[in-house]
Structure formats: structure tokens, C-alpha cells
Input
Amino acid sequence: MRADSAGMFTDIERAFSSYHFRMFDYYDIQPSGDQYVTPLDEQAKRLQHEIDSVADGDVVLLCHSQGSTIAGLVDVARVSKIILLAPPVDITADSVLARLAQRQGSKLRRDAMSVVPRSDGTHMYIPSEYFDSLERDDRMELYQKLARQCPLVIVRALDDETLGMTRVDEIKDARLYDIAADHNFRGDARKLLIATLAKEL
Output
């Protein structure tokens, strides 16, 4: 995942200029623009490093999509609030492979390196270890654990073309906002998202 989450985090940073934002890539991005996907446990190490490197002040995690799962894999003792945007629930290796297969030119292997062309002409390289990592944890259990550890806010996209209607409303002790939006909160939904975040930041 790119640090700016397709420009969404850049817009959020601009709207909340009094906050200090740290945005970073979970994937290994090459100078060519090619992306090498890392397993979820490796991504969790990157997030943990960012949390641990904050010297003082409150730490708020603002996570989009798969980043929400990563938040459930780290120590959040230093975190004062977690906000999950369009968090996935029922994701499996097979479902991800099926979605990637829709991209023309994809070369997919469950037991080896997969290569997926991107719309900008670059490629995404996905090792089998990444698909293995998708199967290790129950996401609903991860989110419920987070809700027990610190204030948890969930923003669900009602018109999510990637995830469909998720059941995050079943998570206890989390504050849920529903927005008529696609997975990346594009168009008018971006303003609604920022207005929603203003209630929590």
C-alpha cells in the first residue's frame, strides 16, 4: 500500500494541518515504481516501528483497508485512538487471487511469486508468503481486541465495490459511522469522510 492511500491521506492531512502526520509505505516500492508486497507480519513490524519512534504526545492510528488489519497485529499501548476506514472482514487468499485475476495480464501463483500489472504501467509482485499471512487471523477478533484496548472508531463505506457490505457493526464498544462511499471515499464522499473525522480528531 502506498503511503498516501491513493491521495486520500494527503487530503486528510491537508484538512487537519494542526496534526503531525506520518505516512509510510507498507510495500517495498522500487525506483521504477514496481511494488513488492510483504506479508502482513512484516507490515506490522513497520507500523510498530513508527509507533515506537514517536517521542511524546498522543498517537492516533488512521488506517485504511488492509491497514486496519495491520493495526490489530501491533502493540497499541502507546495509542490513544484508532480510526479504521473501510476495514476488511472476510478476506481470504482465494478471494484476493480471484480479484487480481480480473486484471488482464496477471500471472498468479498461490505457491510462488505472482506478478500483477498496474494501471500506471508498473507491476506488483506478490510472494506466496503474503497469501499465507492473509489466513492467519480472524479480522473481527482483531478489531474486537482493539476496541477493548483503546477507543476505536470505524468508518464503513456503504457502496464499497471492493469489500461489499461488511459486518463491522457487530464489533462491540466501537463507534461506527456509515458513509455512502466507495472503498476509497472518492468524490463527494471525501468531504463527508473529512467531516466525520473532524468529530473524532
Q: What stands out?
A: Residues 160 and 182 are 4 Å apart (CA to CA). The two ends are 23 Å apart (CA to CA).
